[in-house]
Design goal:
Blueprint: H1 8-16, H2 32-39, H3 41-49, H4 65-71, H5 75-83
Length: about 90
């Protein structure tokens, strides 16, 4: 829920206290990185540095965080994901 609402500090606290991991998913299979990809570049970088999978598919369309960022017009976030290893050919 913290990721969905873009609450970067709360995400950090949850990860640091081990109440959550970067691999946790919601009911659609989306990770915190999916949500950060459309809302918070610093959070996305933090999650990637902590081991988040940049090409994790989620939802009915099996969309990756890169798909989410580009669909929302977040080109800065999309470029960050590509620099971090996201595959634009998926």
């Amino acid at each position: 829920e913290a990721a969905r609402q873009g609450q970067f500090q709360q995400i950090c606290q949850l990860l640091d206290s081990r109440q959550a991991t970067v691999h946790d998913v919601d009911d659609d299979g989306a990770t915190a990185l999916h949500y950060a990809a459309v809302s918070n570049e610093a959070c996305a970088k933090y999650l990637i540095d902590r081991g988040a999978v940049v090409d994790q598919p989620a939802g009915e369309l099996q969309a990756t965080p890169l798909h989410w960022a580009t669909r929302q017009g977040q080109l800065v976030h999309a470029h960050r994901l590509i620099r971090e290893g996201a595959d634009p050919t998926l």
